[in-house]
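Example (one chain per record):
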Amino acid sequence: MTRLRRTPDAEGRPDARRAVARFVLPRPVATARVLPRAAAWREPLAEGGIELLDARPAPRPDLVVAGVTEASRAVAEGAECAIVEGGLARGRLAEHYGHVRRIAALPSLARPEILVPLDARGALDYAFRSWFVPTKRWKRLRNSLLHRLLARRALDRVAPALLVASASAEPPIVLAAAREHAGITADGEWLLVTGGADPLARSVFYVFAGGSAVPSWAVKFARVPSYAEPFERDERGLRLAAAAGHSVAEHAPRLLRRFTVAGVEASVESAAVGSRVTSLLTEPGSRAEKLRRIDEIATWIVEMGRVTRAPAPALARERARLHETVLPEWQDAVPADVVTSLAPLPAVLQHNDLGCWNIVADDRTFTVVDWESAREHGFPLWDLLYFLLDALTHLDGVRPTGERVDQAVRLFRGELTASRVLFEWLRRALVAFDIAEEEVGMIATLCWLHHEASDAARLSRARAAAVAPTGLRPLVELFAHRWVREPGLGLTWNPGR
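Predicted structure:
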């Protein structure tokens, strides 16, 4: 297998999401041959554990990947399946393979966020209405045009598409296994959200029951073999949410089944319906409506803490973890006794990754997804701080991450209009959990230091899986360095002043 170097960021390397298209096939892929015009697939396929067959003569590969002008050569390779970038060679592939399907790759073949069959009109419409919501004006105009073309049944001629060819018309292998293990409708329409550019990110099929305008099931799967850890942690987190009672569970997916197919871990959950809150906060619209949505979610976060509140001794293990593994990395900026000097605090159920990207909402309700980082006994205020940091820095428009860090500093120093929302919610939470104002700066400091350490854990998982992680990090992981050094923030920060 090709060895991969670690790269500091995602720039200049093929997007790992490109190779997710192999999961559209009805059979597993262990070996592949990549033709020259599809060379950008090589690294993503190798990261997914696929053996690249370069030497000649070589065994017949499971899959051949080709550029649009290489369709004839792809057929000549004699592979079990083929993927061709570009939709102009369908007839040529159909002569050799029994089944050829055109799959739209949105927004582009190079960086596909969503894969959806061009004949799946309902799933395509849902993708444009609810999921694929760009923040830049020119991208919104582009999507509006594509959506109009879809309505006129003219999208096939202009959408960036893959041709996926195989001998069988069976559904994708993961969905066929989900039908067997969880009884879902595998033959219905679907769209595939490829997931993040990190090779360890999971992808998700959203599956529509017959005639439904919204998905019924979410089928998650790992993009690298034998990667069970996030599914184990997700199962534990969803069980904690279900056990917390209706007010918490009604805003979390229901885990229906876990299974393994061709060495790949997978699970089936009830589908979260709507758009990511990140998109809802950054697209054009009423600021008052966006603030209403933020208040709705913040209310639920406080309520989740209230109904899962446990006595202070339940937080002892988490305090010890911070003292022993997190604080030693910050000796030059934070006193070593910050954890032990904190007053007794209640423990609460903590989602622990509550960014707007993990919240899906429609006009009626919202669903919090990806519970793999959840803790039964976590710090109060952490989820609220995490969510408000992300939501309120998105509220006034999308900015580069560096600018959002500057904005976050101003937000917590009380210099923005949105600061009032932050401070009001923290004051409510302090009352709800009987926490003194003098403690909040220390609690917030521990929150940001904890999340900053997530990058080290991510790198460790990548090394274990022999993949090259991206260097892209969310705002919450970058805030700690500014928090401990900026005037007005740090251990003495107090929103009540």
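Caption: Residues 1-11 have pLDDT under 50 and may be disordered.
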